[in-house]
Every structure is written in structure tokens, then in C-alpha cells.
Amino acid sequence: DAKTTQPNSMESNEEEPVHLPCNHSTISGTDYIHWYRQLPSQGPEYVIHGLTSNVNNRMASLAIAEDRKSSTLILHRATLRDAAVYYCILRDEGNTPLVFGKGTRLSVIA
Amino acid sequence: DAEITQSPRHKITETGRQVTLACHQTWNHNNMFWYRQDLGHGLRLIHYSYGVQDTNKGEVSDGYSVSRSNTEDLPLTLESAASSQTSVYFCASRRDYLSEAFFGQGTRLTVV
């Protein structure tokens, strides 16, 4: 899987939007961008994924740059429950396992 | 509801003993994975399987083995437990390479 770069940590106030960036300058044309998060003492959980167009679901939105070299996971109103490590992962067309980097640790302040 | 379960949730074992961690999923997924996570580190892949009788090594497979005799289960065996294998172990499954992966709640293993 191509490499991604994320900030080590970010902080947000409760009920404010959060923009979590991910750089993937070596992304190939067929790589999908996946986001997972890991809440404290739990296994990772899927958040969202996309290829070229922006995507929305009940948990978050994914904004993908036009050149696809970066993307941003948007949590529209952060809650205390959103405090977690967020992982940005590129997935190619091959049936290969997920490879996790260090992710971004998001802290939410009440 | 379909789910993925790991057992036991916590285990303490002695150095040199053989230990097996269970992973069971009810989605009928072909793809199953084992990861370990050490304090302050990300998840590292141990072994994975794409179907019955198929097993593959991940980046940290030394000292571990898996077997896939049916679709639902992928047990992870530590042949001779070492203190360096103290960790939290996560099992995961997914339908295919683009679908979301579902993770178990983890097994905290301590080797003393």
C-alpha cells in the first residue's frame, strides 16, 4: 500500500467541526482512500472510504483533493466519543491486508 | 446480528507454554487477519487467510501460526510463548479487498 502521512495528534473542542488531514502524494490512480478509527481499548472500526469524489455517511465526510494527493476526514460536530486514533489507509486493487500507520490521535475537549 | 468474537479477552500464561487465541466470525467472510498492538504502537500484521486451507505470513509472523479449517474460525497459536509476545491481539474479517473490515474486541495476552 502507498504511504500516507498524518499529524501525530490533534485537539478539538466538543461540538465543533474537526478536519483530519492525510497526505498521500504517491497515490496511484486505482488506490482507494480508507479511514478507520480506534476508540480506547477497542478494535479499529471502519469510518469511510472514497476514490475521487467526496463522500458522506452518517459518521463523517471525506473530502478528496482534485489531484488526489491529499484528503481530509471531516467530523461535523465532535463529541467526546469521537476521541480516538484515526488511520488513513490507501487500498489498491489487490486483495492485500490493511496496513496501519501511526494515525492521528484526536483529543476532544468538553 | 453477525459479529466477530475473540476469546479469551484476557489471558496470562508462562514463558514456553503453547497458547491459542480464538477468533470466530459469523459473516461468512473469506478474508481473516490477525494483528498485534503494543503500547504506543500501531497495529502490525501477524498472519492472514483468504479462505479455507489458505494461510499467509505477515510482517511479524515469527513464533506464531494459524490454521483455517473452516470459514468462520482463524485460531492464532503461539508455539512457545515469550515475554516479547505480551501484547493486545486483534482479529479482523472482511468480505473482499474493498469492503470494510470488522475487528474483534481484542485479547490482552500477558506472558510472564
Notes on the structure:
With 110 residues, chain A is mainly β. Chain A contains no helices and nine strands. In chain A, strand 3 (32-38) and strand 4 form a beta hairpin. Chain B is built from no helices and eleven strands. Chain B is globular and about 35 Å long. The model of chain B has no long low-confidence stretch (mean pLDDT 95). The chains are: A mainly beta (110), B mainly beta (112).
Structure, briefly:
The complex is a heterodimer of chains A (110) and B (112). Chain A is mainly β.
> N-to-C SSE series of chain A?
EEEEEEEEE
Helix content of chain B: under 10%
Number of strands of chain B: 11
Strand content of chain B: over 45%
Largest interface, per-chain counts? A-B, 22 and 23 residues
Distance between the termini of chain B: 37 Å
List the total number of helices of chain B: 0
C-alpha-based Rg of chain A, rounded: 13 Å
Largest sheet of chain B: 7 strands, mixed
Question: Which short descriptors sum up this protein?
Answer:
heterodimer; A: 110 residues; mainly beta; five-stranded mixed beta sheet; four-stranded antiparallel beta sheet; B: 112 residues; seven-stranded mixed beta sheet
